[in-house]
Structure formats: C-alpha cells, structure tokens
Write a structure and sequence with these properties.
Length: 247
C-alpha cells in the first residue's frame, strides 16, 4: 500500500489467481491511487494471498456473494480504515497491465468535473461471443429511466465520488450493479461521463460458460431495472398525491 494519491481503488475478485498480481501492480502504480483494496469474493484458487503478496489490502468473503456485494464490502472497508471521503475507483481484476490506463477515469472526478466516470473500452483482441442482448437491455433501460445515453453500459471500471456512491446505495445485486448505478446517479442530478480508456479484459466467450454468464447478467440487469421502474412509479404517485392534498 502507498499513502499518496487521492482515490481508493477497489478490486472485486473471484478466482483471479492468474491475473490479480499484475492488476494490483498496475493500479498501485497510478499516482491518483492512495491505496488498493482487493475484495476476495470467496475464491478457491488463492487469489487473496496473491493480492496480499502484490501489496494490496485484502478483505475476504468466506463464501461467494457476487460482484455487487464485493464492491460494497470494499467501500465499507475504505470508510472504516481511514478513507471515508475519497472517491472510489472500481477495477475488474482481469485487466492486468492495461489497468495502468485507469488514470483517465480518476482525473475528472478528482478535478470536480464529474461525479461518476465510466470507462469505454476499445475493441478487444479477441471477439466476444454474445449478440449484445444484455448490453441493449441495459442501454435501453438507462435511457428510459434516466434519459442518459451510454455506449458501454455494463463497463465495470468506474470512478465515483462519495456523493455519487451515496446516490447509488444500496447497490443492485450481482451483475445489475453497473446499470443501476448509472440510473441512480443520473437521477440524483449528478454528472456522469463516459471516458475512453485503453483497457483490455478477459472477453466473455461463446461457450456454455459464457452464455450462462450472459443469462445471469440479463437476469440481474432486468431485476435492477424493474426495481427502479417500481420506484419511479411510486415517486410519481407520491408527487400526484402531494399536489392533490389541500394545503
Ligand atoms: O461472484 C463474483 C463474480 C465476479 N467477481 C469479479 O467481478 C469482476 C468482473 O467479473 P468478470 O470479469 O467475470 O465479468 P465481466 O465484467 O467480464 O462481465 C472480476 O474482477 C471478477 O473477479 C466477483 O467479485 N464476484
Ligand atoms: O463488450 C461489451 O460491451 C459486453 C460484452 O457483450 P456480449 O455479451 O459479448 O454481447 O460486455 C462486456 O464488456 C464490457 C466492456 O464494456 C465489460 O465491462 C462488461 O463487464 C462485459 O460484460
């Protein structure tokens, strides 16, 4: 850990033994990063020990709880260990050396020009195996609920200040977290910015594992959007009730 810099990096990690050390090293070297916290989300492959050896602070979920829960655990750990106010930089564990490009996400938040930044990745070296169903579901839902256009609505690399973090609480579960975060932060009147970043991650393939991952993503994004539609409707009903109530 280092103690210079201005944001806290949080890396949710499940069975990332092959990649976590390189990712931690690249993130630790960013001048914008004060400390790196890895949340080992019930890994069975020694991810936590490797992260610790690479210099990260490590919090462990004894059992797998999903990406969103790991993100919350990391933020709680940061708040409890002396960084209650710093912006949070969320980083997927599979970026390896390319995580060195994440500074562009932190800069606009640290400069006060954005409350939430989201990385837009370039074309990856291997093609993905999906047909974009989840991406479209998320993009259309964000447009409908927040009137905001996204190019990569599922992108997990994000930097947000504490106002945006608070607006996004509680996180939607599992793979719905990114879509819901964007909706909640825009609807709170905060500023969201997509930023191109030269990041390279493990692309989800076309095999059964990849399709299962997409099915789980689709379910979680759908549930997150349904919950927010319900909230928006309840708010409209409340507003109408307020207007109809005599002073
Ligand atoms: O139950 C889980 C599943 C995934 N992850 C982490 O969440 C990030 C994103 O996962 P992945 O790269 O598998 O999904 P993608 O972003 O490609 O859809 C990675 O750092 C994973 O190790 C996690 O913390 N808990
Ligand atoms: O390329 C994308 O936009 C999609 C992958 O789409 P497919 O499931 O291959 O249709 O989502 C993945 O890539 C994102 C980068 O934008 C990641 O951050 C997402 O977590 C991942 O699911």
């Amino acid at each position: 850990m280092t103690d210079s810099g201005e944001c806290v990096a949080i890396i949710p990690a499940k069975d990332e033994a092959g990649r976590i050390a390189a990712t931690v090293a690249a993130v630790s070297a960013l001048p914008q990063v004060a400390t790196v916290i890895v949340v080992d989300d019930g890994s069975a492959d020694g991810t936590g020990a490797l992260a610790l050896a690479a210099g990260a602070a490590v919090v462990t979920h004894p059992r797998n709880r999903g990406k969103a829960a790991a993100m919350t655990t990391g933020a709680d750990f940061a708040a409890e260990h002396g960084w209650p106010d710093l912006p949070l930089l969320y980083v997927d564990a599979d970026l390896e050396q390319s995580a060195a490009a994440l500074g562009v996400l932190a800069d606009p938040v640290l400069a006060g020009d954005a409350d939430l930044t989201i990385a837009v990745l370039p074309p990856q070296s291997t093609a993905g195996g999906g047909r974009g169903f989840v991406v479209r579901l998320a993009r259309n839902g964000i447009r409908e609920l927040a009137g905001f256009e996204t190019t990569q609505p599922l992108s997990g690399m994000r930097c947000l200040n504490r106002a945006a973090y608070t607006a996004a609480q509680p996180f939607a579960r599992g793979w719905g977290v990114e879509t819901a975060m964007t909706v909640d932060v825009v609807r709170a009147g905060l500023r969201v910015l997509e930023v191109p970043a030269d990041l390279h991650h493990r692309v989800t393939g076309a095999d059964w594992r990849g399709q299962l991952h997409r099915a789980e993503q689709y379910r979680d994004v759908w549930l997150a959007l349904a919950a927010r539609r319900g909230r928006a409707l309840a708010a409209r009903v409340r507003d109408r009730g307020g207007r109809d109530t005599p002073p």
